[in-house]
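Write out this protein's structure.
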Amino acid sequence: MFGVLGWMLFGLIVGALAKLVMPGRDPGGIIVTMVIGIIGALMGGWIGRAVGWYGPNDGAGFFMSLLGAILLLWIYRMVVARRTV
């Protein structure tokens, strides 16, 4: 398993790629990007297990982590946009 620094680095990479893939204005800085990446990876693993792609103790692959981070970034943008309007 990854250590805490490994999760932070992985979350930063996945979150940055999610922000790069999704067009538009990006709220938040490096910490928000890292959190979106980490939680997105957890969401991707959960979705993968729900669909049957991963076993109970399998972690999400890079692609599912990226999809989870993109979904989470989309939700985050919707929440932040409603607060500022």
